[in-house]
Amino acid sequence: MTGKGKRTNLVHGGSKRSQWNEVSEAIFLTQGFVYDSAEAAEARFLQAGPDEFIYARYGNPTVAMFEERMALLEGTEDAFATASGMAAVNGALTSMLRAGDHVVSSRALFGSCLYILEEVLTRYGVEVSFVDGADLDQWRAAIRPDTKAVFFESMSNPTLELVDIEAVSELAHAVGALVVVDNVFSTPVYSKAVEQGADIIVYSATKHIDGQGRALGGVILASKEHIRGVVEPYMKHTGGSMSPFTAWVMLKGLETIDLRVRAQTANAQAIAEAAEGHAKLANLIYPGAPSHPQHDLAMRQIGAGGTMLALDIKGGKDAAFKFLNALDIILISNNLGDAKSIATHPATTTHQRLTPEQRATLGIGDGLVRLSVGIEDSADLVTDILQALSQV
Ligand SMILES: *Cc1c(COP(=O)(O)O)cnc(C)c1O
User: Fold this and answer.
1) What average pLDDT score do residues 48-75 get?
2) Taking the model in full, what pTM does it have?
3) What architecture is domain 258-390?
């Protein structure tokens, strides 16, 4: 039951009903499946059909519904659901790379992504070159005839710098390298990554897909050939598969993701408009604001400003902490993409592990506060931000 429109597919796409004809997708909390005969078991292990399952690490009906709905949303042929966003990033990269391969990656990465590129891949003999993701000349100089893959976050955490998917894909494809995009901040609602050239798209489903702070999950999206030929063998044998219960939570999240993300974006836009130029702010970073250095690229690439913004508060850590502690509605936490608005101080939490020099390179100052904007009333959020700023 699939339609042409995105919202129809988000509600109905991938649904399969049992003999009871339930309305809400069933949770198949089973690790295994019974065969009618020994011959049937033998045949299924030889070649499982589309609706035939063997073991939940390989696949499960509830997980398959989530994968199909995600593939419809992103516009890829296929998808593999994973236990977390990091299982997706790790699986997307390690499933296709081997010792001696060369990878080019943007430098501005989520801490755990950086760990995989910097520590894990290199440990197994993969050579990784880092570039400033916004600088196409650096990509051009770093991509070599033997480069196997490029990796980047299409919108970086927490400074909201964009990488031009179309331009980097063109450079990568010229040498036959695959383009792997961590698209969390862009969200699957706004993503046009497939038409822009991405080969493999990765999401942490923990963020906007759940969107209600309940479960960890992830997904790898690509062609059927790549998912079934490269990703699935690696994932099913190494254990990073999604649980059926999580898949059900994510299916419910997908039903409302378009409504939530658009409401969150409208709220982020309202906050940016109300707070831009505030006397207590050294800078406000929001891709939807014309002041963002890559505003045009944001409009071309995802057609929206997104659900995240960053406030650089004058006065460093003390001022940032005063602001955070003065917030009334907005929570201090470190998730993002949630229905609840959340504020984070990257320098002392998510990016604490980096040296002050590394943070400076990435533009993560002591006054920087990352804001994940929720679906509350925009007037309440604007009031909260302004009253907290006034207390700095
Ligand atoms: C959160 C996040 C991840 C990791 O996802 P988990 O679900 O926490 O494992 C990876 N990349 C980006 C950009 C993220 O924001």
Assistant:
1) 95
2) 0.97
3) Alpha-Beta Complex (3.90)
